[in-house]
Sequence to fold (560 residues):
Amino acid sequence: MRILVIGGVAGGMSAAARARRLNEQAEIIVFEKGKYVSFANCGLPYHVGGEIEQDSYLLLHTPETLKAELDLDVRIEHEVIGIDRDAKNVTVSTPDGVEKFDYDALVLSPGAEAIVPPIPGMELPEVTHLRTVDEARELAARAATAKRALVMGSGFIGLETAEAFRHRGLEVTVVELVPQVLPPLAPEMSSLVEKEMRQHGVDVRTGVAATGVRAGGDDAAVTVDLSDGTEVPADIVVVSVGVRPNSALATEAGLEVTERGAIVVDERQQTSDPHIWAAGDATAVRHGVTGQVGPVPLAGPANRQGRRAADSIMGRVDTAQPVLGTAIVRTFGLTAAMTGASPRMLDQAGIEYFVVHTHPANHAGYYPGSQVLHLMGVFSKEGKLLGAQAVGPDGADKRIDVLATALRAGFSADDIAELELAYAPPFGSAKDPVNMLGFLAQNVLNGTTKVWNAGDLEWARDNALLLDVRSEREYAMGHLPEAINLPHTHIREYIEGVKQVAAGRPIRVLCASGVRSYYAHRVLAQHGLDSATLDGGMFTLIEAVPGLELATGAQQPANA
Ligand code: FAD
Fold:
């Protein structure tokens, strides 16, 4: 049996290695058009930033090591330029000319290609991408002498690239078309990331497009023009505005692809041709929550799909689970992580949901070094987990990994509340932030808690008594101008006073994080008052409402 694999990195190499482990007799040839196979593309930004000092650390294998370990025939600088499905062969451009190779099974894992925006100047030598080892090397070398860099796009790779340049001491501007950085995050979570970037000296321009790059500028190699009329000088421009499936070969061969060009595969990675399998960024996957079909360009799915393709070729039934899009990125001192569907994705898919936010400590508050973790959960109206996001200096990764597992298991708020997670003070809390998310959602579902959020703010300002239950000091430092202050520890004492001031209006309670307002809300609700607690407290409200105006100073006696 001869298996040919196109693409020698994540999906392709997983397929080849797994095929060998399952079949010692098969002839397995991997074609890679670049100079390197099995390289760590996820590590490239860290080489640019200097954290991974030696580029050799990115090269996990060579054709020689793969021959020795797995008896794979790996051919670098071999680009497959055609597939003849009837003859079951591929045409390959090699350093010695064009050759044809027959196959019994063919695996496509050609990855994705960077999108190049249709604006002038993309051909300038200062404009580049970060997708290959050579590009990483070149950027690392250029960063040593450059003063200013501009990164177009603030997705995962854009953020990592911006951070890498700051590590190298460059002035960095990030330009993002949509009004927030890291578009897969909910806006109130992404604004935490944006603040972190600004605090580390990154000039962040959101809601603005780069309209062109031209040579020369203010003491810089090029000038980038932006749609708001401003211009940014730069010595390096990295374009990181997204990728598209590298599916030209598949399309030319007549394989089924989606409208947006991703190769259609079944649950065993088989394409519309029974002799051809595909894996990785070039393929379309079904999203595990929304059911929508499209590419999810992440290393984990690509590796699993490659492995599955080999299983399938060898006749093993290993059915794919839908992809959840679990992803993580570090931005200076913060980690942002997510799994499943975001509110925006659910809106697009027409799926009903509710959201809860919590801001617990990453580990026991009394143990030194605890820090706030911002956690968001998205649940169906029936209480099933649909997605989660976390942003914080520490502990975001493990919470999202637990919640990704919960999502895969189809867990509900009740299941999450009952999760028994490892605890000692340096690591977590007896009620872990993950449990807290479950408790919050449970309370909303069973009516113990009624919540309000940023979307209700205007209504609440006009129609409700806004009751700020933080301390007098916190209130004086910044509060909603309409809110009166009654620290939550006094709520029982002044319940009649609150009723009088409310004068029949609903009461919308708020505090810093949503904990104290929840306590106050429970007291008010048990006195028969229409009250609701602000989900995620002022932490979330301030992030969700850009430019929210706050009054300062102590409460005036008339309000008291
Ligand atoms: P690739 O790994 O890209 O491999 C495709 C290979 O096919 C390429 O080497 C290409 O040269 C070769 N090829 C294409 N066409 C042909 C042809 N006709 N003939 C021969 N060879 C061909 N994902 C994460 O989950 N976490 C991360 O932290 C992360 N960081 C990343 C950072 C960077 C800078 C980049 C670029 C990607 C990152 N990713 C990350 C994404 C992840 O690397 C990809 O999802 C994954 O590598 C996709 O695997 P693949 O096999 O589909 O494609």
Q: What stands out?
A: The chain has a mean pLDDT of 96. Residues 6-12, 31-34, 41-42, 44-45, 79-80, 109-111, 130-131, 157, 246, 249, 280-282, 297-300, 302 surround flavin-adenine dinucleotide (CB under 6 Å). The CA atoms of residues 287 and 323 lie 5 Å apart. The chain is about 30% helix and 25% strand.
